[in-house]
Structures are given as structure tokens and as C-alpha cells.
């Protein structure tokens, strides 16, 4: 199966283009846009870890190392498409237009953080594994039924492919020809369990064979292949040809979450080595240098801009009004049931008397 | 419109359910049915009989055999503008979808503070007493009444079934709609044509009486009524309540009746421990403690798995067991 599903690269580790067909589509503007988004989400990720360490947000799931997979795929979407992230895909969500303040609010325990900017079809991050895949299949099928050309993308990890909901969702999508792209980020580990203990199959892409849909295996650290293959899969979806399974092979440098210590289950020197050889940002830098696009001044500018934007979001998150206990009760149903209303009144009265 | 004559038809409970879906498919383009064998086959109980022929394969969808998959997909459709009505073939087969209902359908409104909502109905035949195979007879409504964010409805007769199902389809939140399969074809009613609603959250007094409050729902209503008849001959008059909705419970109706009689017997076929009967006892405790003349009696299924049908007559509450409980509260 490794032979049938080789890892496709458009851009190698040294920043050399391997796929000549895409050459004409690669503009300076596109490359700079890729790079700027990668810098932006990496800066956010590092800031969030630091905020967690300082006790300013709760447990946080970092994605550093997976920037090309998230940015490349999210940039392939159109304005009216749907995005179904997991808890590690806020890099994709913010690239697609989610509010940085709200993403920080989510990690700081606030429901307000699950609300996307008005009109942006971004689902709250899935916390259980793989359950978002049927949602994406259903939302995409709904678009098909409405006769739109909108599609959905759903993110999930390597471990998710062992769950029933992965298979039920992909099966539903393939039977209904739902316009959905199933975007897997295979980072080699489901918390601590390596992929060879997760599945007997050598690739995730090959699972597409069973559903008779295209399965594509790509280098998830090569933003070019991620972007163009996701575009292609989305185009197939829009044309009524149904779902595509993309396996983007990548690596998370850090922990599963800030509550996890990866040195317990893997040798972290591998992560250090990968920073020098496989890093998704480094690869774009190599390409920019090879093409004469590299501009240190511009890079400094975008790094500062990202930092400023994130600092502002942190400030907005920290200045956000404190949690209103009434909100717990008011959004369970459109109208609270008598029992919830009673609990609310009694609790709020108690707070008034004894704050 | 005062003079409009409302046309009625004599329908079984399962026919009334079919009529409710027919009415709503006709009225609202967003209504869509999903489930196993609901298309050409019309469902294993024929609840969707003829609907695919009438409304097409796009609106009455045979899904793959995957409860989590199609309940999950229905959540995605509900969020994206549809009103899915999902059929689970038997309540005992809903468990693969438990996670989708517990962590998503019932919680999306809360998680997004109303930005995403799930106006979805999950229909499921439930209960024992029809000599069905194992696992086809569960009555696990309490799993879902315990779950915040979903309403649980359970009609006992054709009129309520149609009106409640229409109300459920129009509800802005998820509703689990439990259908007493034992009563699917054993009860007939005059059911109005067209659209009408039975309000979710409102119970119904079936017989007025002063001595004992008898509370039940679904397939246990006929059992309660039989026991009430037998007691009436002996001069004891039961106030028989059909709750119709199990979440939210009609606490006002319960309190009003219990404060009148001071004695209560609850009848449900689900297991006693953690059953909805316990929530009713809590309501009585909270609202009517000083009116009580006897401890509340519960006549329920036992704390055993629902047995294979060779034993089910021993498992299910019978009029005899209900009469025995009524005697107990009367003698206390």
C-alpha cells in the first residue's frame, strides 16, 4: 500500500519544486500569503502555551509543526464553505477567519469562544474523537440538497480513524455523495500511541479504497501540495463527485496538550531534528530564497504584525466581561424549562444574598 | 372559521404518526426523514409507509445501517437549515448514537450560546410486550431525561401521538419521541385531519378521581386504566394521569392531583432505579409533602435487563401489580 499511496510532495525539503504543473500558479503573492499565515498561527500557538504556563488560560492543545497542513487546507476554502475543526485545528479556523479573541476565550473556558464571526460557518471544536465527521457529512449533504456549490472540510487526526464515527461518517458521505473533504492530519501519535499500534494499515489514505472514494497521501509539511490537493478535492466536491480523503503526513513538535509530557512516550530529539529538516515554514523560506522572494525586512514586518494582532486579542480576551452565571441556564433550550428556570432563580437569588 | 367542521379519521397510533410526518413533509420543505428501511419498506413498523413514494427519495432517506452516522449527519443537516426526523428502528439500538446525542445534539445550543441549534426529532419505538427478540424491548427513557438539552415525549394514544409529533418537529430543540410499540395497533382514536398540536410538557388527566393519583405514560397507560377500572368497582376512585412528556415533566398537574388525593402510585415499565418515577417522587416531595397520606408506591420493571420474551409477562407491570400497590397506599 505504501507503493500505491506514496507521500506526494510538490516542494521538497530544500524548497525545490517537484511538480512542474503548478509552477505557473505559484505567484509571489500566494507564497507570501502562505508564509504570513503560517507565521501568524505559529506566533499564536507559542503565545497560547505561554499564557497557559502563566495561568492566564486553561489547558491548551498546541499544533506547532502542523502549520502547512492547516493553513494550506484552510486557504483552499471559499467564503461560504464549512469548516469542522478538532481542538487542535484552530490554526485552520483562524486562517479561515475565526476571531482570535474568541479562540482564546474558548481555551479560557468560555462558551463565547465557540461562536464564529457572523456568517462564518465554523463549527465549535470537536472534543470527542471523530464525532465531527458525520456532522460535516450532514452539513455538506444539506448544501447539496440546497443546490449550492458550497463544500465542507473536516479535520481529524490519525487516532480518529480507529473510531466508528470516522467510518460511519465517511460511509454516509460517500453513499450520499456529500461535498466534503475529509482532511486527516497524521502526526504519528494519538497522545502517546504511535501509529503502528493504532492501525495495521500502513497508510490512512488507503482507507478510501473501501469507500470507493479518492484517497490522497501528501506531505503535510509541504504547503504547496496541501493547498493544491485540497483545492482539487474541494472542486470535485463542488462538481457533485463526492468526498475525498486526504492524509497529510505531519508532526507535532510539542505535547498533546499542556497537560501532557511527550518525553514520557517518545524521544523528543526527533522533534528537534525535524525542526531543521522538515519544518513547514523553513521549507517556504528555502523556496523564497531559491526564487529571490526572500525579504528579511518583510519577514520582520509580518512577525511584528502577528505579534501585535495576538497581543491585542489577548488583551481583548482578558478584558472580556466575567462569566455571567445566567448564561449557563439560558442556552440549554430556546426557552428554559421550568426546572432550569427554577434552578436559575434560586441560584441567582443565593448569589445576591450571599455573593 | 367558527363553523369549520374538523374532519376526523379513525387511526391506529402508528397511522397517526405517519399522518403527522405526512402533514409536516407537506407543510415544510425543511422537514426530511432519515433512517434504516424507512423508504420503500416504509419502516419496520410501517410508520413511514408511502411517504417516500409521495415525497421522493430526497426527503425520505434510507440511510446506511449506522445510528451514530445518521444521527450525526442529521445534526449537521439540522445546523444547516433542515428539520430532520430520524427513525431509530428500536430504542434498544439507539446506544451507538448515544455520544452524538449526549455530546452534540443536546449541547450545541449551549456550547455556542444559541448560534448553532439542533431542531431534530429522534423517533424510537420502545418497550416490551410484543414478543419481540432480545434488545428490541428496552424502555430506557431515563437515560435521556437525565441528559440536559433534549426533550423526551411519549404518547399513549393516536390523537396525542400526532399532535405531539407535530409539536416535536416544530420545536426549536432536539426531541426524543418514544413510540409505545405495544400500542402501535392496539389503540384507535378519532384523529383530526391536518395540523394540530399537543403541547410538549403538558400531561393529561384521563379519569378524574379523589382517592389515589395514578401516574403513567406510553404503553403503561392502558395497564393503569385497567387497574383504575377494577378499583372503581370496589368504590376507590383513581385520578389517572398520562404524563405524555417525560422531560420537562408537568409538575403542576402532578402537584394538583397529589394535593387532592394524598396518595400516589406511579407505573412505568422501565427499571426502578434511576427511573423517571423517582423524579416524580421528587416533584411530589418538593411540592406536596404535607399533603401526603401514604408513601408513594412505584410499580415498575425490575432492576434486571428486560428479559427475553419468555419472561416478559413477569417483567412488565400488570393491572394486578398496580391494584396491589393501590391497596397498599389506601391501607397505609
Automatic annotation (TrEMBL), chain A:
Coiled coil: none annotated. Its cofactor is thiamine diphosphate. It comes from the Bacteria. Heterodimer of an alpha and a beta chain. The keyword Aminoacyl-tRNA synthetase does not apply. Its EC number is 1.2.4.1. GO terms for biological process: branched-chain amino acid catabolic process. This is Pyruvate dehydrogenase E1 component subunit alpha. It catalyses: N(6)-[(R)-lipoyl]-L-lysyl-[protein] + pyruvate + H(+) = N(6)-[(R)-S(8)-acetyldihydrolipoyl]-L-lysyl-[protein] + CO2. InterPro entries: Alpha-ketoacid_DH_E1_comp, DH_E1, PdhA/BkdA, THDP-binding. Keywords: Oxidoreductase, Pyruvate, Thiamine pyrophosphate. The gene is pdhA_1. It comes from Pseudoneobacillus rhizosphaerae.
TrEMBL record, chain B:
SMART domains: Transket_pyr (SM00861). CDD domains: TPP_PYR_E1-PDHc-beta_like. Its cofactor is thiamine diphosphate. Residues 11-186 form the Transketolase-like pyrimidine-binding domain. It holds the Pfam family Transketolase_C. Keywords: Oxidoreductase, Pyruvate, Thiamine pyrophosphate. It is an enzyme of class 1 (oxidoreductase). PANTHER family: PYRUVATE DEHYDROGENASE E1 COMPONENT BETA SUBUNIT, PYRUVATE DEHYDROGENASE E1 COMPONENT SUBUNIT BETA. This is Pyruvate dehydrogenase E1 component subunit beta. The lineage of its organism: Bacteria, Bacillati, Bacillota, Bacilli, Bacillales. The gene is pdhB_1.
Amino acid at each position: 500500500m505504501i507503493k500505491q499511496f506514496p507521500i506526494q510532495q510538490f516542494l521538497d525539503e530544500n524548497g525545490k519544486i517537484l511538480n512542474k504543473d503548478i509552477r505557473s500558479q505559484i505567484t509571489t503573492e500566494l507564497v507570501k500569503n502562505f508564509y504570513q499565515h503560517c507565521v501568524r498561527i505559529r506566533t499564536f500557538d507559542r503565545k497560547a502555551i505561554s499564557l497557559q504556563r502563566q495561568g492566564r488560560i486553561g489547558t491548551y492543545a498546541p499544533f506547532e509543526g502542523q502549520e502547512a497542513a492547516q493553513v494550506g487546507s484552510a486557504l483552499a476554502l471559499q467564503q461560504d464553505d464549512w469548516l469542522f475543526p478538532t481542538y487542535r485545528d484552530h490554526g485552520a479556523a483562524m486562517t479561515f477567519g475565526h476571531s482570535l479573541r474568541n479562540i482564546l476565550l474558548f481555551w479560557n473556558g468560555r462558551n463565547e469562544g465557540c461562536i464564529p464571526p457572523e456568517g462564518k460557518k465554523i463549527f465549535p471544536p470537536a472534543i470527542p474523537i471523530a464525532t465531527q465527521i458525520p456532522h460535516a457529512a450532514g452539513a455538506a449533504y444539506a448544501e447539496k440538497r440546497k443546490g449550492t456549490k458550497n463544500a465542507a472540510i473536516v479535520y481529524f487526526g490519525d487516532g480518529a480513524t480507529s473510531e466508528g464515527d470516522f467510518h460511519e461518517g465517511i460511509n454516509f458521505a460517500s453513499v450520499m455523495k456529500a461535498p466534503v473533504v475529509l482532511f486527516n492530519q497524521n502526526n504519528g501519535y494519538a497522545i502517546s500511541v504511535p501509529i503502528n499500534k493504532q492501525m495495521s494499515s500502513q497508510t490512512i489514505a488507503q482507507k478510501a479504497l473501501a469507500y470507493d472514494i479518492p484517497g490522497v497521501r501528501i506531505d503535510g509539511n509541504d504547503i504547496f501540495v496541501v493547498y493544491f490537493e485540497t483545492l482539487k478535492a474541494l472542486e470535485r466536491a463542488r462538481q457533485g463527485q463526492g468526498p475525498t480523503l486526504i492524509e497529510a503526513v505531519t508532526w507535532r513538535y510539542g505535547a498533546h496538550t499542556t497537560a501532557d509530557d511527550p518525553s514520557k512516550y517518545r524521544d523528543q530529539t526527533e522533534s528537534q531534528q525535524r525542526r531543521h529538516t522538515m519544518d513547514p515554514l523553513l521549507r517556504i523560506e528555502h523556496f523564497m530564497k531559491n526564487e529571490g522572494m526572500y525579504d528579511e525586512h518583510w519577514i520582520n514586518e509580518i512577525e511584528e504584525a502577528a505579534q501585535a494582532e495576538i497581543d491585542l486579542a489577548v488583551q481583548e480576551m482578558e478584558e472580556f466581561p466575567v462569566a455571567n452565571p445566567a448564561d449557563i441556564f439560558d442556552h440549554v433550550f430556546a426557552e428554559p424549562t421550568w426546572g432550569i428556570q427554577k434552578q436559575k432563580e434560586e441560584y441567582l437569588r443565593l448569589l445576591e444574598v450571599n455573593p | 372559521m367558527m363553523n369549520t367542521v374538523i374532519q376526523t379519521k379513525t387511526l391506529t397510533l402508528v397511522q397517526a404518526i405517519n399522518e403527522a410526518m405526512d402533514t409536516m413533509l407537506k407543510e415544510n420543505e425543511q422537514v426530511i426523514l432519515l433512517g434504516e428501511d424507512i423508504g420503500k419498506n416504509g419502516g419496520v413498523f410501517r410508520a413511514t409507509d408511502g411517504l417516500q413514494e409521495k415525497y421522493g427519495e430526497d426527503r425520505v432517506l434510507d440511510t446506511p445501517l449506522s445510528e451514530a452516522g445518521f444521527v450525526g449527519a442529521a445534526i449537521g443537516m439540522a445546523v444547516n437549515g433542515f428539520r430532520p426526523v430520524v427513525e431509530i428502528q428500536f430504542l434498544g439500538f439507539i446506544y451507538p448514537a448515544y455520544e452524538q446525542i449526549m455530546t452534540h445534539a443536546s449541547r450545541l445550543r449551549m456550547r455556542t450560546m444559541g448560534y448553532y441549534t439542533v431542531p431534530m426529532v429522534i423517533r424510537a419505538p420502545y418497550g416490551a410486550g410484543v414478543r419481540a427478540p432480545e434488545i428490541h424491548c428496552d424502555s430506557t427513557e431515563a437515560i435521556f431525561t437525565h441528559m440536559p438539552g433534549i426533550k423526551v415525549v411519549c404518547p399513549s394514544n393516536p390523537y396525542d401521538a400526532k399532535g405531539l409529533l407535530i409539536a416535536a418537529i416544530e420545536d426549536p430543540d432536539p426531541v426524543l419521541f418514544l413510540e409505545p410499540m405495544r400500542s402501535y395497533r392496539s389503540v384507535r382514536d378519532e384523529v383530526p385531519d391536518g395540523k394540530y398540536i399537543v403541547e410538549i410538557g403538558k400531561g393529561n388527566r384521563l379519569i378524574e378521581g379523589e382517592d389515589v393519583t395514578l401516574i403513567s405514560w406510553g404503553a403503561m397507560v392502558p395497564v393503569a386504566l385497567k387497574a383504575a377500572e377494577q378499583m372503581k368497582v370496589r368504590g376507590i376512585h383513581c385520578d389517572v394521569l398520562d404524563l405524555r412528556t417525560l422531560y420537562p415533566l408537568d409538575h403542576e398537574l402532578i402537584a394538583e392531583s397529589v394535593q387532592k388525593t394524598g396518595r400516589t402510585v406511579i407505573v412505568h415499565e422501565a427499571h426502578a432505579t434511576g427511573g423517571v418515577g423517582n423524579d416524580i417522587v421528587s416533584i411530589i416531595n418538593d411540592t406536596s409533602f404535607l399533603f401526603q397520606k401514604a408513601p408513594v408506591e412505584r410499580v415498575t420493571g425490575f432492576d434486571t435487563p428486560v428479559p427475553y420474551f419468555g419472561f416478559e409477562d413477569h417483567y412488565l407491570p400488570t393491572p394486578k401489580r398496580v391494584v396491589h400497590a393501590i391497596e397498599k397506599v389506601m391501607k397505609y
